[in-house]
Each structure stands twice: as structure tokens, then as C-alpha cells.
Design brief:
MetI-like fold; mainly alpha; about 65% helix
């Protein structure tokens, strides 16, 4: 077999048109950009976000542009159906139902957001301690959580509302103090899977303080399921506030969606719009938050 002898004449420079043939033209991206892109492709998630934005705008600006106050009474126009003057009709005291629903959106959305924030803080802290320390600490704390979870949330809410009294601040706290169990379980599971990762072990070897390690390394890397849990906690809090109104434990002076639906239930046979309009807003808002939560879960999943 003859040996292959190559000289400089046997090599030719690559043409300019072929020099960038292997170059990847895809623009640089980050996890956040990819997540936003995946979220925008989810039609239900985008629809849910639009609905939430509309509800916020109606809650903020609706009562301002309405010619009526939410507590203005006109007995000459009581129990009227939808019309040009009152697009959603009036109630038994002649009050415009539309402006009361817009004002009630403020109450219901604030209850949902603040209660979800309280549940978020308690659940993340509890789940973080359980998952990080493990061992007997995890065993004891999880048994306590299971004992608490063995009693329905509704009973806790009713008991705490009776003890603390009926006020908006107590509504925020009571719903938040009883809705953190699911978040705690989610965070615990994520921390258990993260605490044995190399960067966590490196942080421990570097003598990083435990609080900083939990916040800087564990919470930030478990933020995806935490955000999903927070998003799904908002509609749960809105529904619980409406349920309290039906039980007569809500704040009567505030026309939240639950209070309006509770009042309309008494006139379901004669004036059905008093119940239908508040119920519609409750349902559409809860669906919107659920759509956004499902879309976030898919968008923030690194396996997608």
C-alpha cells in the first residue's frame, strides 16, 4: 500500500460562503426568556392573564368613572333589571349593581392577594425548615402538619373568625393562616431534592450561613413550584372569602363579591341578576387564576 503524501498545494482555503456554515444563528436566551416565550404560547394562560388585568383595571378605575357611588340608595329605582342607566340592574335599595361589583372586586382581589401572601410566607418557611434539616425535625414537623390537615380548613376559618371577630384584617389573616399546608408540602419536596446538589454542598463547605443558604440557594432554585402554588392560592382565598359571606361570617359593611352573591341568593326567584352577576365575576376570576397557574407550571418546568 502506497503511503499518502500531502503537500501544501493539496489544501485549499475554505470559501467565505462556507466559513459560517456551522454557526448557530439562534439568538442567546435565558431561562426567564424561554419561560416567557412558553407562557405566551399557552392560549389559556394568556387569556387568564388578560382577564386578571381587566379585573384589576375595573377594580381600580370602575368606581371612579361610574356616575354612582357604591352605597348610594335610590328607592325609586329599586329591583330594576339591566338597562342603559344601570347595565347590571339595581338591588333592593336602588343601588347600582355594576359599581358595587367593581368596588367588590377591590375587596375580593385584595383578600386573595394578601391571604395568599400570608400563606406563602408561612408555607415557604415551614417547608424550608422541614426539607433542609430533615431527620427528626422533618418527622415531627410533618406529623404536626398532618394533624392540622386532618381537620377541614373551613372549621379552622369559622373558629378563628368567631374568636377574632369580623373585620377585613381578620379575614386576611384567618384565610392566610389556614391555607399554607399545600405550599409547605410543595416547598419541602423541592428542598429535599435540592439539598444534596453540588452547589448546596459547596455552600456548606464554604461556611455560608444557614439563613442565607436557604434564601439565596434553595428558595431561588425552587421558585418555579412556589410561584405556581402562590398563583393557585389566590383563587382559593377568593372563594373562601365568598364562602364566609354565605355563612354570615364576613364583613357586612364591605360589598365584596361574596357579600353581593349572598344578598342576591335571597332574590334568586324574583331578581336573579342580583346573584348571577356577582357569581359570574367570581367564577371567571377563579378560572383565570387557575389558567395562569397551569400555564406557569408548564412554562417554568425545565424539562419542557
Amino acid at each position: 500500500m502506497e503511503a499518502l503524501h500531502l503537500t501544501a498545494k493539496d489544501f485549499q482555503p475554505v470559501p467565505a460562503s462556507e466559513r459560517n456554515a456551522d454557526k448557530i444563528n439562534r439568538p442567546l436566551s435565558t431561562f426567564l426568556k424561554d419561560a416567557v416565550g412558553r407562557f405566551c404560547k399557552n392560549k389559556l394562560g394568556v387569556i387568564g392573564m388578560i382577564i386578571i388585568a381587566v379585573m384589576v383595571l375595573l377594580a381600580v378605575f370602575g368606581p371612579m368613572v361610574s356616575p354612582y357611588d357604591y352605597d348610594y340608595q335610590n328607592l325609586a329605582e329599586m329591583n330594576q333589571g339591566p338597562s342603559l342607566a344601570h347595565p347590571m340592574g339595581t338591588d333592593a335599595f336602588g343601588r347600582d349593581l355594576m359599581v358595587r361589583i367593581f368596588h367588590g372586586a377591590r375587596i375580593s382581589l385584595i383578600v386573595g392577594l394578601i391571604s395568599a401572601a400570608v400563606s406563602f410566607l408561612i408555607g415557604v418557611t415551614y417547608g424550608m425548615i422541614c426539607g433542609y434539616f430533615g431527620g427528626w425535625v422533618d418527622t415531627v414537623m410533618m406529623r404536626i402538619l398532618e394533624i392540622i390537615d386532618s381537620v377541614p380548613q373551613t372549621l379552622y376559618v369559622i373558629l378563628l373568625m368567631v374568636v377574632f371577630g369580623r373585620s377585613m384584617t381578620n379575614v386576611y389573616l384567618v384565610i392566610g393562616l389556614t391555607g399554607w399546608l399545600g405550599t409547605a408540602r410543595t416547598v419541602r419536596g423541592e428542598v429535599l431534592s435540592l439539598r444534596s446538589r453540588e452547589y448546596i454542598l459547596a455552600a456548606k463547605v464554604s461556611n455560608v450561613p444557614t439563613p442565607r443558604l436557604m434564601i439565596r440557594h434553595l428558595v431561588t432554585n425552587a421558585i418555579a413550584p412556589i410561584l405556581v402554588s402562590l398563583t393557585l392560592a389566590v383563587p382559593s382565598a377568593i372563594f373562601m372569602e365568598a364562602y364566609l359571606q354565605f355563612l354570615g361570617l364576613g364583613v357586612v359593611s364591605q360589598p365584596s363579591w361574596g357579600a353581593l352573591a349572598s344578598d342576591g341568593l335571597n332574590f334568586i326567584r324574583t331578581i336573579p341578576h342580583l346573584l348571577l352577576f356577582p357569581s359570574f365575576f367570581i367564577c371567571i376570576t377563579i378560572l383565570a387564576f387557575n389558567f395562569v397557574g397551569d400555564a406557569l407550571r408548564d412554562a417554568l418546568d425545565p424539562k419542557m
